[in-house]
Amino acid sequence: MSHIHDTPPPSSPSLPTSISSPPSPTIIKPTELSPKTLRRMLHHESDVLIVGAGILGTALAITLARPPHSRSVTLLEKSLKEPDRIVGELLQPGGVSALKDLGLEECLEGIDSVRVKGYEVIYYGQGVEIGYPGNTVGQRSEGDVAGGKNLRREGRSFHHGRFIRRLRELATKEQNVSVVESTVTEVVKCEHTGHILGVQCLNSCGKNVYFGQLTVLADGYASKFRKQYISRSVVSKSRFWGLELIDAVLPKPLHGHVILGDGAPVLLYQIGSRETRALVDVPEGLDTASTKNGGVKRHLREVVLPSLPKCVKPSFERALDEGKLRSMPNSFLPPSVNRFPGMVMLGDAMNMRHPLTGGGMTVAFNDVVLLKELLSPEVVPDLGNTKLVLKQMEKFHWRRKGLTSVINILAQALYSLFAANDPQLKALQLGCFRYFQCGGQCVDGPVGLLAGIIRRPLLLFYHFFSVALLSIWLVLSESPLYTMPLTLISSVSILYKACVVLSPFVLSELKN
């Protein structure tokens, strides 16, 4: 049975059915519990021990606890209060499909979530719609075709905390899951073999130790364990500053908005029937956001506000006056192969990309879908078989790349273009906008990649360099004949810049 406590009680526990409800007064006799449940609750021993009840950790706990896996799972989280974050609020269509594959689609209901049909890209006041495609490269999901008509995919947006609460509520209802509020302080290793056996926790009742045949560290973007097990460093060159707009009028309802101009991009998307999230990218060292020039708030008022669509300005200004401004770093961390016996690191603790394209949750849920297959009892009967588990995790690293490499590379490359700060990048930014204006496959291809629907990295390269060639053509066609020598040099510089933008991220995906 599931339960939530600062620390599990030493004897027969009472078992609440959801996070928000108090413990039930009904006492369950130990004889009525399965041996696995007794071992998990009384001796803190599980098949799987998961640190972090976020998007990936909670979904993985539910998936591994359900048949055919039926693993005994302990899910540890330092705070079970409903989180309040400014990212993780838009789930792409590929993430919605993965959620359905996991049987978790009910988490999207009852939280005032909003349908998302695609994006509106606004370039210096001029807009172009880039809607999500329908059936793509032979893939089909339930509801794509109805009445003989090809329907386009949809994403969902919502308050992050409400979605997490629904996930955690489902976890507490799983017979094979114990959800425990406790702060993990360190991992526990075998002194002789170096295998990771579990974790040590600290709460109001003192120290506790939890053991698992497999320990999963999924403690998020600010992971306290990352440096111990991953050699790569997190790179963060900007922050998103977020506001919640009330009753904002958006140029294109049920669409995310990307606003491009002289500065870094601004994102707008609904997260509820009345609420809209505004995210403003502020690069490190930006002069107009420096303390000497009045700080970020003045930057938002004097630089960002004038660049917004007229219909959005009143609600943005009201939110700015209320002063509820929060920020979060925009981080990049290439994926790594898990090589430590007894432990795997997953989610944002192991792999991050710029949140511009909203791909994080889509990656997380698709990772769980893949792990559901690779760690199935038929393939891995005993999770204590560390050699077999590590072998499966190496397969996981390479098999996930069909989707994750596309989302990782696209997020970083698009941010470089959308936050253009030199002439070559500005030319590529214009080329990207003009490419979208061509419509057809010039929209369906890139947006299908961004949405997690198309899983073909080579198609990403095709569209990216098509944008580069279009950018070069625009420069050539708009330049006077007498400047042709300089224009040719500029064209070569644009192509070189495109290679410089894309190559580091491609190489990072090819490494172990």
Please write out the topology:
Blueprint: H1 35-42, E1 45-51, H2 55-65, E2 73-77, E3 90-91, H3 93-101, E4 114-116, E5 118-123, E6 126-131, E7 145-146, E8 149-150, E9 155-157, H4 160-172, E10 177-181, E11 183-189, E12 196-203, E13 206-217, H5 226-229, E14 235-246, E15 256-260, E16 266-270, E17 275-283, H6 295-304, H7 313-322, E18 326-332, E19 343-345, H8 360-374, H9 386-399, H10 401-418, H11 423-437, H12 441-450, H13 457-478, H14 484-510
Parallel strand pairs: 1-2, 1-13, 2-10, 5-15, 13-19
Antiparallel strand pairs: 3-9, 4-9, 5-6, 7-8, 11-12, 12-13, 14-17, 14-18, 15-16, 16-17
Helix pairs in contact: 2-4, 2-8, 3-8, 8-9, 10-14, 11-13, 11-14, 12-13, 13-14
Describe the structure.
The chain is α/β, with parallel strands linked by helices and 512 residues long. The protein is built from 14 helices and 19 strands. The protein has helices at residues 35-42, 55-65, 93-101, 160-172, 226-229, 295-304, 313-322, 360-374, 386-399, 401-418, 423-437, 441-450, 457-478, 484-510; strands at residues 45-51, 73-77, 90-91, 114-116, 118-123, 126-131, 145-146, 149-150, 155-157, 177-181, 183-189, 196-203, 206-217, 235-246, 256-260, 266-270, 275-283, 326-332, 343-345. The strands form 4 sheets. Strands 1, 2, 10, 11, 12, 13 and 19 form a 7-stranded mixed β-sheet that branches. Strands 6-5-15-16-17-14-18 form a 7-stranded mixed β-sheet, with helices on both faces. Strands 3-9-4 form a 3-stranded antiparallel β-sheet. A hairpin with a 4-residue loop joins strand 16 and strand 17 (275-283). Helix 2 runs parallel beside helix 4 (160-172). The longest helix is centred in the C-terminal third of the chain and has 27 residues, at 484-510. It is globular and about 85 Å long. It starts with 34 loop residues before the first helix and ends with a helix. Mean pLDDT is 90; it is low at 1-30 and 136-149.
